[in-house]
Write a structure and sequence with these properties.
Layout lengths: L5 E2 L4 H7 L11 E6 L2 E7 L14 H22 L7 E11 L8 E12 L2 E10 L2 E12 L2
Length: 146
C-alpha cells in the first residue's frame, strides 16, 4: 500500500462536518482512503435517501454522490490543516457517462483522481463502481468560493 494513502473510518457526524451539504442531502457515508492526489469514498443507497427512487438510486443522486466525493477531498484537506472547509461549487461537468444505477441497499464506491489544482479550481477524473464494475465515470471541475 502506498504510504501516502491513509485509510480513514468516519462516522455520520464526522462526514457531515467535512461536507457543506447537510442531512438528508449527504450522498457519501464512507471514506476508504485519502491522499493529496485523490480519495476513495462509498455510499450505501438507502430508501431514506432523497435522491432514491422506488427501486433505484437516481442519475441525479449518482452525480451528486460523485460531486460530494470531490467535496469530501477538499473538506478533509482543510480538516488536516485545522481550518474550516470553504464552500465550493461545481464549475463544470464533462463527459459524464452513466452505465447503470444501483438498487436500494447496494453499496457504491467512487474513486476521485485529482488531475489539476490551481487557485481554488480543481479538475478531477471520477469513477463509480458497483461490485467492482464501473457504472459511472466523468470529469468535473470544482471551484472554491472566495
Amino acid at each position: 500500500m502506498n504510504p501516502d494513502i491513509k485509510t480513514i473510518t468516519l462516522g455520520k457526524e464526522e462526514l457531515a462536518a467535512l461536507l457543506p451539504q447537510k442531512f438528508p442531502f449527504v450522498m457519501v457515508d464512507k471514506m476508504f482512503s485519502f491522499s493529496e492526489t485523490g480519495i476513495h469514498t462509498g455510499l450505501k443507497v438507502g430508501r431514506e435517501n432523497i435522491l432514491s427512487g422506488e427501486h433505484f438510486f437516481s442519475e441525479a443522486g449518482l452525480i451528486e454522490h460523485m460531486a460530494q466525493s470531490v467535496a469530501l477531498h477538499t473538506g478533509y484537506q482543510f480538516f488536516l490543516r485545522n481550518e474550516p472547509a470553504p464552500l465550493g461549487y461545481i464549475g463544470s461537468i464533462k463527459e459524464i457517462e452513466i452505465k447503470g444505477l444501483p438498487k436500494l441497499n447496494e453499496e457504491i464506491e467512487t474513486t476521485v483522481a485529482i488531475l489539476q489544482e490551481f487557485m481554488g479550481i480543481t479538475l478531477v477524473d471520477i469513477s463509480t463502481t458497483l461490485n467492482n464494475i464501473e457504472i459511472a465515470k466523468g470529469q468535473m471541475k470544482t471551484v472554491l468560493a472566495k
